[in-house]
Design brief:
3 helices, 5-stranded parallel sheet, alpha/beta, 126 residues, 5 strands, Rossmann fold, globular
């Protein structure tokens, strides 16, 4: 099954590394109210691998796009103007390599996470 997925994704123009990464994140459990910091919509390639059946609502954060009604235009280099403890799951995929102030961003995402939950992120490719 993995070989089939690898072949399909690579034919779509995704790199082998990105495809392996996407297959691995299929193990992530996302649920409840989701904040996807850095993705403008659910078309991002990793959504083909995530089980999103337990998501109640989705909010997407992207500073440069206006493509979705669920999109919040926020500069991730500054304090995030969203209510504390409001998200069950937070995704931060392929974003940290674009952010200068990592500590502030991670602190803000932690603030947004509901108590006893955690967020998931992937550091940039090395």
């Amino acid at each position: 099954m993995y070989l089939y997925k690898l072949a399909i994704e690579c034919c779509k123009g995704k790199s082998l590394w990105r495809t392996l990464y996407n297959i691995k994140i299929a193990d992530l459990k996302v649920y409840g109210d989701l904040l996807d910091a850095g993705s403008k919509n659910i078309i991002a390639s990793y959504y083909r691998y995530l089980d999103i059946s337990n998501i109640k609502s989705s909010t997407f954060v992207d500073y440069y796009s206006n493509e979705s009604e669920y999109l919040v235009k926020i500069d991730l280099e500054k304090e995030i103007p969203l209510k504390s403890f409001s998200y069950d799951s937070i995704l931060l995929m392929n974003v940290l390599e674009h952010v200068y102030n990592h500590k502030l961003l991670l602190k803000e995402l932690y603030r947004l996470t509901k108590k006893w939950n955690y967020y998931r992120f992937c550091p940039f490719y090395v």
